[in-house]
Design goal:
By secondary structure, this protein is of the alpha+beta class. The chain has 14 helices and 8 strands. The longest helix has 68 residues.
Length: 452
């Protein structure tokens, strides 16, 4: 498969750590201050938890290097102290994760890291309870061993020793799971801190750029503006030079949807696997679930039991009746496709929806399809993917439609071509994802709550 530079840029966008928004110098400085405050709080929480952990560790008793039955009384005393310290350390770490989760919830763009942290914390809470229960069993058995030793009851001693060995073996298994959970939680926090550090650097650059732009605008304002030559139109909209925060959030959310669905990354030919197909409805529904998880307006409960064709019908019905969907029409900003891409670039959720080719043909729309190949009975849905403000991309959109992601790998529609256009982790031109002709088969809709 030939990978174009546009494809590389689009795929890379899904993994950008941070991109700052447009705004005045004061607005950008306020965003930087909020970002720095969250980072400082996270660092302070980490330092405080580490200091308390060190203090607890210093109080941990030095256990015997080799087990000596004659020292059973000392062993029980040391084990009791060690158990309490272990419980304190577990509770300290769980409290630390809870505090970090509260910090991450302060900035919407940290939601992917918050999701990872909360997932690890949920698992860790269960594992911690198992660890503490297991250690309490060990403590109880040690006390019983102490009693058996002083009673000189060899039979009871041997039986309790066997039980103690089994409990210790289980502790090793649980500790391994807990270590993995703790590692996942720490990685989420470390990645969030890295994101914030990169964002602060990006905001510094944007503040400097905007300050320079302010100075340049002030300089130009001192002299009268030149009139454009006859017949030349001045642009009514300035294309931003960087993606907005909302667009970055949408890019990250679409990447998380691809992870949720375990969509393939590499080419199918290289791994000899079947193509990823018929995933558009799953992709659409999981994006709705992601919006709901982020406490944002969602369609997750709006289309129970409906397939992609029926969802396309329902979206059109809601758009016609003034519901939460609005159809995009051509306007002053350009044609429908350009409007769809422009809105997505600002972070608005835009969906392309197409009825099934069978229905389209019944409606006498001259669709393009391979002769002798049966028409699909499936409708199709795709999400418009934010792109960098690039003039070449804009030109492409006016010819091939906006860039979309739908979870599928699309074979070329030309007969005899073996090319595949992956829309699993990257984005493809709408003309490669939908039945042609695109301007007759597909409508584009705004998810209204995302544009408010």
């Amino acid at each position: 498969m030939r990978v174009t530079m546009a494809t590389v840029v689009l795929i890379a966008l899904a993994w950008l750590p941070a991109l700052a928004d447009q705004g005045s110098v004061s607005e950008l400085q306020a965003k930087k201050a909020r970002t720095e405050a969250v980072l400082q709080e996270l660092n302070r929480d980490s330092d405080s938890a580490a200091a308390e952990s060190d203090r607890q560790q210093q109080n941990r008793p030095k256990m015997q290097s080799q087990y000596d039955p004659s020292q059973i009384d000392l062993s029980v005393q040391q084990a009791t102290q060690a158990l309490q310290i272990e419980i304190n350390l577990h509770n300290l770490f769980v409290d630390y994760l809870s505090t970090c989760a509260s910090r991450l919830s302060e900035l919407p763009e940290l939601s992917p890291y918050l999701d990872r942290l909360q997932a690890a914390a949920r698992s860790l809470r269960d594992t911690t309870a198992d660890v503490i229960s297991n250690e309490q069993q060990q403590m109880s058995l040690q006390k019983q061993l102490q009693t058996a030793y002083h009673a000189n009851n060899a039979r009871e001693w041997n039986s309790l020793n066997s039980q103690y060995d089994a409990v210790q073996s289980r502790e090793q298994q649980i500790s391994s799971t807990m270590g993995a959970d703790m590692g996942a939680a720490k990685a989420a926090i470390a990645d969030a801190k890295s994101f914030l550090q990169n964002r602060i650097q990006a905001l510094d650059a944007d503040i400097a750029r905007e300050a320079a732009a302010d100075a340049e605008r002030a300089k130009k304002a001192e002299s009268p503006a030149a009139s454009p030559p006859p017949g030349v139109m001045t642009p009514s909209v300035v294309t931003p030079s960087v993606m907005t925060d909302r667009a970055v959030r949408l890019v990250n959310m679409l990447a998380e949807v691809s992870k949720d669905l375990n969509l393939p990354k590499g080419p199918a030919k290289a791994t000899n696997r079947p193509l990823s197909t018929d995933r558009c409805q799953d992709f659409f529904r999981d994006l709705g679930n992601r919006l709901g998880d982020a406490k944002m307006s969602s369609w997750s409960n709006d289309f129970p039991g409906k397939n992609a064709d029926q969802i396309a019908v329902e979206i059109e019905r809601q758009a016609t009746s003034g519901g939460t969907w609005k159809k995009i029409e051509a306007g002053a900003q350009g044609n429908v496709w350009q409007n769809a891409q422009r809105l997505a670039n600002s972070g608005v959720i835009v969906i392309g929806a197409q009825r099934s080719p069978v229905v389209l043909e019944q409606e006498h729309i001259p669709i393009k399809h391979s002769p002798g190949k049966p028409l699909s009975t499936n409708g199709h849905l795709a999400v418009v993917y934010p792109t960098p403000p690039d003039s070449k991309v804009t030109d492409t959109v006016s010819v091939n439609g906006p860039f979309v992601r739908d979870g599928n790998e699309h074979p070329a529609q030309d007969n005899g071509s073996s090319r595949i256009f992956p829309s699993t982790y990257g984005a493809v031109k709408a003309s490669k994802a939908f039945t042609s002709p695109l301007d007759r088969t597909t409508n584009w809709y705004i998810w209204v709550p995302s544009n408010q």
